[in-house]
């Protein structure tokens, strides 16, 4: 637990307060980490959508007959660099 040693308690009330405070500290850390994860995931989705739009635009810049589906875009995105000279 953060490299802390568990102190000796003089009463049950003191021990209860210690564990309650520690649990609240970990709960707050968990909530902050969860909020950061949600923010990261939202940013990742926005970036993915932007990159897919740029890929469609780049693929169609010379004129294209049909727009690829999102699944095709992911396939193109993952294999695109394999065919570059």
UniProtKB/TrEMBL annotation:
* GO terms for cellular component: centrosome; kinesin complex; kinetochore
Which top-rank group of organisms is this from?
Eukaryota
Give the UniProt record's GO annotations in the biological process aspect: cell migration; centrosome localization; chromosome segregation; establishment of mitotic spindle orientation; microtubule nucleation; mitotic centrosome separation; regulation of neuron projection development; vesicle transport along microtubule
Keywords noted in UniProt: Coiled coil
Please give one Gene Ontology molecular function term for this protein: microtubule binding
- What InterPro entries does the record tag this protein with? NUDE
What does the sequence similarity comment in the record state about its family? Belongs to the nudE family.
The name of this protein is: NudE neurodevelopment protein 1 like 1
Supply the source organism for this entry: Aotus nancymaae
Gene that encodes it: NDEL1
């Amino acid at each position: 637990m953060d490299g802390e040693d568990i102190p000796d308690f003089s009463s049950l009330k003191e021990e209860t307060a210690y564990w309650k405070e520690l649990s609240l500290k970990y709960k707050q850390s968990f909530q902050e980490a969860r909020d950061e994860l949600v923010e990261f995931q939202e940013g990742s989705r926005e970036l993915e959508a932007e990159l897919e739009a740029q890929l469609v635009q780049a693929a169609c810049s010379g004129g294209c007959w049909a727009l690829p589906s999102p699944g095709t875009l992911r396939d193109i995105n993952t294999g695109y660099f394999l065919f570059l000279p």
